[in-house]
Design a protein that fits this description.
This protein is an alpha/beta fold and about 450 residues long. It is built from 19 helices and 16 strands. The strands form 5 sheets. Strands 2-1-3-4-5 form a 5-stranded parallel sheet, sandwiched between helices. It has a 5-stranded parallel sheet with strand order 7-10-13-6-14. Strands 8-9 form a two-stranded antiparallel sheet. The longest helix is centred in the N-terminal third of the chain and has 30 residues.
Length: about 450
C-alpha cells in the first residue's frame, strides 16, 4: 500500500486521519508543523502528503511548493478551515492535487487520496515506459559498422541537429526500406536522440484499421452522434513530440488529403468539432512500398509524397550491410540467451556460413527470429547450421515493371551489369540513371541496395 504523510498542527485531527488510513493498510506518519513535515518528507519520500493550510512557522502553500521541489513524484492534498477561491487558486498553482475544507469527512478524504494514488501510479508507469523507450530508442541502438549504416547514423544526426531546440514545428521525415530492415528503430532514433525526446513518441500502423476508424484515431472526436464521449486523437496525443505513421502507403486517399492539410498548417480538427486546434508535432512516416509507383497509379497523392520526403531516409537491407550480419547474429544470440536464462551460447562456423549464404528477404527481423528460435532449441550451448532451420530464400523482387523487363531480369548478374552501366554512363546521377532504365529513383535505389552499389566518394 501507500506511504502517507500528514502535516497538521491539530494533534487530535492528525491522529484520527492517521488511524483511519492505517486501518486501510497504509503507512502513515504525522508532523506537527511545516519544518518537521519537510524533514519527514525527505526521509520518507511519501506517495501523498496531506497538508494543512495554516501551519506554525511556514504556511501550507510554501510547504507544498517545497515538497514538489524536492520530489516531483509526490502528490499533495491541502486541507483548510478558511478555504476560498483565492486559496484554491494558490493551492493549485503550488501543485496541490485537491483542496478540501474543514471539517473533512474521512470518507471524502479517502476518495481524494485514492484518486491521487491512481494518478501517481499512472504517472510513474508512464515515466517508466518513457525511460524504457528512450533506453532502446537512441542512435546508439542502430548497430553495425558497415558503410551504409554509418551513413545512416550520420544522416539521423544531421536531422536532429537541425531541429529547433525549442521543439517548434519541423518538416516531416519519410523512412523507406524493406520489411524488417529497421524503419521503426530509425524513427525512434530520430525522436529519442533529438530535442523532442522528452515529448511523447506515438506510433500507429496505417494498415491496422479501416479508414473510418483510422480517422477517429488520428484526429479524435467530440461527444455526440456515434460517440458517447470526447476523445483526443493521436496527433494531439503526440503534441510536443513525434507521431510515427508506419506503413504510410496503406493510408486511404481521403485521409491522405487530411494528413497533407495537417502537415501544411499544423492544425487538427476533431470529428464533430467546428474549430481547429494548433499542434506542435513532428510526423515521421515509414513505408516498404514504392510511393512513386503508387503515385503514378493514382494510389498515393503526389503533393503528400513531395511534402513527406522533405527529409528522406533510406534504411539499407541486411544483405547490403556486409559483416554487420555476423555482428547482429552474435548480438541477438547474447540478447536471447539472457532473456531465456540459457547457458552461454555460441554460433559455430557452420552456422556462420549458413547465415552468410542466406539472402534474408525478411532482413533484421528475420535474423532476430531465426536466432531466437535457435537459442530456445539449443541444449548444448552451441548453435550449428542445422539448428538455424533456414530454408532457401525466394528472390527478393521490388520491381514495379513486369518480369519481362530486361533491367529486372531474374539473373542477378545481368541485373547488376545493367545498373552499373547506367550509373557509370550517367556519372552516378541517380535521376538520370533511373530515366535511362525507365524506373523510379526509389526503385533504382532499392536495386542498388540489393547489389551493394553505392556512389563513389567525391
Amino acid at each position: 500500500m501507500a506511504t502517507l504523510l500528514v502535516i497538521e498542527d491539530e494533534p487530535m485531527l492528525a491522529k484520527n486521519i492517521a488511524r483511519f488510513f492505517q486501518q486501510h493498510h497504509h503507512t502513515v506518519e504525522i508532523a506537527g508543523d511545516g519544518i518537521a513535515g519537510l524533514e519527514a518528507a525527505r526521509r520518507l519520500m511519501p506517495d501523498v502528503a496531506i497538508v494543512d493550510y495554516q501551519l506554525p512557522g511556514i504556511n501550507g502553500l510554501e510547504v507544498i511548493r517545497e515538497l514538489h521541489r524536492n520530489d516531483d513524484q509526490v502528490r499533495t492534498v491541502m486541507v483548510s478551515g478558511h478555504a476560498n477561491v483565492a486559496v484554491a487558486v494558490d493551492a493549485m498553482k503550488a501543485g496541490s492535487f485537491d483542496l478540501l475544507t474543514k471539517p473533512v469527512p474521512l470518507k471524502t478524504l479517502k476518495d481524494v487520496i485514492d484518486r491521487a494514488l491512481v494518478e501517481a501510479n499512472a504517472r510513474r508507469a508512464l515515466d517508466y515506459y518513457k525511460r524504457r523507450d528512450a533506453e532502446h530508442g537512441g542512435i546508439e541502438c542502430i548497430l553495425g559498422e558497415s558503410r551504409p549504416i554509418q551513413a545512416l547514423r550520420e544522416l539521423i544526426q544531421i536531422l536532429i541537429q537541425n531541429e529547433p531546440a525549442d521543439a517548434s514545428p519541423v518538416a516531416p521525415i519519410l523512412i523507406c526500406g524493406e520489411t524488417g530492415s529497421g524503419k521503426e528503430l530509425v524513427a525512434r532514433a530520430c525522436h529519442f536522440s533529438g530535442p523532442r525526446a522528452k515529448g511523447a513518441f506515438v506510433e500507429v500502423s496505417c494498415a491496422s484499421l479501416p479508414a473510418h476508424l483510422m480517422e477517429g484515431e488520428l484526429f479524435g472526436y467530440e461527444k455526440g452522434g456515434d460517440h458517447a464521449e470526447r476523445r483526443i486523437g493521436l496527433f494531439e496525443a503526440a503534441d510536443g513530440g513525434t507521431l510515427f505513421l508506419d506503413e504510410i502507403g496503406e493510408l486511404d486517399l481521403g485521409l491522405q488529403a487530411k494528413l497533407l492539410r495537417v502537415l501544411e498548417n499544423l492544425r487538427v480538427r476533431r470529428l464533430g468539432a467546428v474549430t481547429d486546434r494548433q499542434i506542435n508535432v513532428r510526423v515521421v512516416a515509414a513505408t516498404n512500398r514504392d510511393l512513386e509507383a503508387m503515385m503514378r497509379a493514382g494510389q498515393f497523392r503526389a503533393d503528400l509524397l513531395y511534402r513527406l520526403r522533405v527529409f528522406a531516409v533510406r534504411v539499407p537491407p541486411l544483405r547490403a550491410r556486409g559483416s554487420d550480419l555476423w555482428l547482429l547474429a552474435q548480438h541477438f544470440t547474447t540478447v536471447f540467451t539472457k532473456r531465456y536464462n540459457k547457458p552461454p551460447t555460441t554460433l559455430d562456423p557452420s552456422a556462420e556460413a549458413a547465415l552468410l549464404q542466406h539472402t534474408w528477404p525478411g532482413n533484421v527481423r528475420e535474423l532476430s527470429n531465426v536466432i531466437e528460435r535457435a537459442v530456445l532449441l539449443s541444449t548444448d550451448g552451441r548453435i550449428s547450421s542445422t539448428d538455424l532451420l533456414l530454408t532457401p530464400s525466394a528472390p527478393v523482387d521490388f520491381a514495379e515493371k513486369p518480369s519481362e523487363q530486361p533491367v529486372f531480369a531474374r539473373n542477378d548478374e545481368l541485373e547488376r551489369s545493367h545498373l552499373v552501366r547506367a550509373l557509370e554512363e550517367t556519372h552516378w546521377d541517380l535521376p538520370a540513371a533511373a530515366t535511362m532504365l525507365d524506373v523510379s529513383v526509389d526503385t533504382l535505389q532499392q536495386r542498388m541496395d540489393r547489389h551493394g552499389l553505392y556512389a563513389p566518394a567525391k
